[in-house]
Design a protein that fits this description.
The complex is a heterodimer of chains A (264) and B (321). By secondary structure, chain A is mainly α. Chain A has one domain. Chain A contains twelve helices and no strands. In chain A, helix 3 crosses helix 10. Chain A starts with 5 loop residues before the first helix and ends in a 15-residue tail after the last helix. Chain B is an alpha/beta fold. Chain B has two domains: 229 residues, Rossmann fold; 65 residues, 2-Layer Sandwich (Alpha-Beta Plaits), CATH 3.30.70. In chain B, strand 4 and strand 5 form a beta hairpin. The interface between A and B is medium-sized, with 24 and 28 residues.
Chain lengths: 264, 321
């Protein structure tokens, strides 16, 4: 066994991920920022009297859940580990820094996917159709990976106080939710307006689009993938997912059915 | 700097740790200033120094926890910066503060470490059971570590460091703040491990511990190594004067004691005379002869060899010679 080999390091990254799942999934801040926050935000919109279709709301909730949950675990792990000095233990073990980061990202990604799957199941239970499951799964996977990577970046400031990182994380996440196309689709925003510009570059906009297309097919898929050059991190994989979804589903016929809820 | 005596015939064997001009700076402060030393296979090397001298920073660099600013560290021939995984696979680390996962049980912590070192599950379980038994934790192995006492946590950390049967063990103040039972258990285990061939790098404040355990001692002050040698050689090299304590059954004049052969100085505390001498054998003979001549019975007679504490204080500049 060569402990420095890539395969062995990936295996050890999975060991770290399993440890993170055991230790951090049920921590208070993770539950608050990863589960309660998106639920209450969704309820605020749902009960807000805007008469939005359920299909639109659920797809938004899926996107928002994915965003909140996937960014809830990864930023908190490093400060927690630093505070408990367990990071020093990991650093003294025969694992590379890349393996530690990968392990934390895997744990965060799985948390996002797991909780999002529950949201998705609720949507299906409410009778909403799933038209392109593979595309949706692929989009969720890519988005969860990207968001957990974003969470790791938020943990970069050197601090042993998880609250400091959670505050920074909240400062980024909340504005993103409101300019993300989750509750107001990009198509409805005034093109070139003050919200549209940041929204079209927001990673959550892409997630919402990736969710709506296979679940409810309300968006102009190809036009979205064309008009959202986006941020360098999030755009390419999600665009691939979007374009792939459009090709696979062949849903140009749905492109004008904005918010109609179903593909015929 | 006191150079070590290299004539020791038992000192042979290849070096396991090779440190060359190791340097670490934090802003304008140089925490470790170009130190060089080696640790030989099978020895217990004590690393001593006052608070803030650079002991822990050095240990962290040796174990690859913090990056090196200058110089090099080779462990088992692997550069700790270029091949950290290969080096770390062969050593274990016991830090001063327990760093087990408190939300996991002792068993889960051990299995985690086993997986991180690539041990197969059967071997990890067998080693874990043995270590928990040896360290007196087998009855609490399924309890979360957050419920452990400090001594139990430290014993668990030692078990975690020993799980993969490392050839080299780094310990940073392993018995700091522990009760006598835990301290003796850990020190006994370290002796047994060393007897079985494990090389030990021990950072400590405890002179008695270093004196009893270590084959060689390195003393660091203000980021620089000021002495490396065997404890006895270090003590005699630094402090050549011995102390003799004697008491008689009746008062004796100070000038009579001070005038004896071999006595360099004498002072009295209560009824005990503290005599400083460079030749304890001659001084004891003089005292016995003096006792016979004066008819004064010797009640107590003790020789006090130079202590590592005094050597340490002299070398670290906290006591003037």
């Amino acid at each position: 066994m060569n402990p420095a080999a890539y395969g062995e390091q990936v295996r050890r990254a999975w060991v770290i991920a399993r440890k993170d799942i055991r230790v951090y999934y049920l921590k208070g801040p993770v539950l608050i920022f990863g589960i309660f926050m998106p639920v209450f935000l969704f309820l605020a919109f749902f009960l807000g009297g805007r008469q939005l279709p359920l299909a639109f709301l659920v797809s938004g909730l899926v996107g928002m859940t994915l965003f909140f949950t996937s960014t809830a675990v990864s930023p908190a792990i490093f400060p927690w580990e630093g505070q408990a000095r367990t990071l020093e233990r990991l650093a003294a073990c025969p694992v590379t820094v890349e393996a530690i980061v990968l392990g934390d990202m895997i744990a965060s990604t799985l948390f996002g996917i797991g909780v999002t799957a529950i949201t998705l199941l609720i949507g299906l239970a409410l009778g909403l159709p799933l038209l392109h499951g593979i595309v949706l799964g692929f989009g969720i996977l890519i988005a969860a990976c990207c968001f957990s990577g974003l969470g790791m970046l938020l943990a970069v400031p050197p601090t042993n106080l998880p609250s400091n990182i959670m505050m920074l994380s909240t400062l980024l996440k909340f504005p993103l939710v409101f300019i993300s196309g989750i509750f107001v689709p990009l198509e409805q925003m005034r093109r070139g307006g003050s919200c549209w510009r940041p929204a079209r570059r927001s990673p959550t906009s892409r997630t919402s689009s990736a969710t709506r297309f296979p679940a409810h097919t309300i968006s102009r898929w190809r036009s979205i993938s064309r008009c959202l050059p986006g941020s360098p991190w999030f755009s390419p994989p999600l665009r691939c997912a979007c374009t792939g979804g459009a090709c696979r589903g062949g849903c140009d016929r749905c492109s004008d059915r904005k918010m109609s809820g179903r593909c015929q | 700097m006191i150079k070590e005596n290299s004539d020791d015939p038992s000192a042979g064997g290849p070096n396991i740790i090779e440190v060359e001009t190791l340097t670490k700076t934090f802003g304008a402060i140089t925490a470790v200033d170009g130190i060089s030393f080696e640790v030989r296979r099978g020895e217990i090397f004590g690393f001593l120094g006052p608070n803030g001298a650079g002991k822990t920073t050095t240990t962290r660099m040796l174990t690859g926890v913090v990056p090196i600013d200058g110089g090099s560290v080779r462990i088992f021939g692997h550069d700790i910066q270029k091949e950290p995984v290969l080096a770390k696979q062969r050593f274990g680390v016991v830090p001063e503060t327990s760093n087990a996962y408190v939300d996991l049980t002792a068993w889960q912590n051990l299995m985690l470490v086993g997986d991180l070192y690539g041990l197969d599950r059967t071997r990890a379980e067998r080693r874990s059971s043995d270590l928990l038994e040896t360290l007196g934790l087998s009855g609490r192995s399924d309890q979360k570590v957050k419920g452990y006492s400090k001594g139990m946590k430290q014993r668990l950390i030692l078990a975690m460091a020993l799980l993969h049967e490392p050839e080299l063990l780094f310990l940073d103040e392993p018995t700091s703040g522990l009760d006598v039972q835990s301290t003796q258990m850990i020190l006994g285990l370290l002796r047994d491990l060393n007897a079985d061939g494990t090389t030990i790098f021990l950072t400590t404040h405890n002179m008695e511990e270093a004196n009893r355990l270590c084959d060689r001692i390195g003393i660091i002050r203000s980021g620089k190594i000021v002495a490396i040698d065997a404890p006895e050689r270090l003590k005699t090299a630094i402090d050549r004067e011995h102390q003799v304590e004697v008491s008689f059954d009746r008062p004796v004049p100070a000038e009579a004691i001070a005038g004896l052969d071999g006595v360099a100085g004498a002072s009295r505390t209560g009824d005990v005379w503290q005599i400083t001498t460079g030749n304890p054998d001659l001084t004891i003979r003089s005292l016995v002869a003096f006792s016979g001549d004066r008819g004064a019975t010797i009640l107590t007679l003790n020789t006090l060899a130079p202590s590592l504490d005094r050597a340490f204080l002299r070398l670290t500049g906290e006591e003037q010679p």
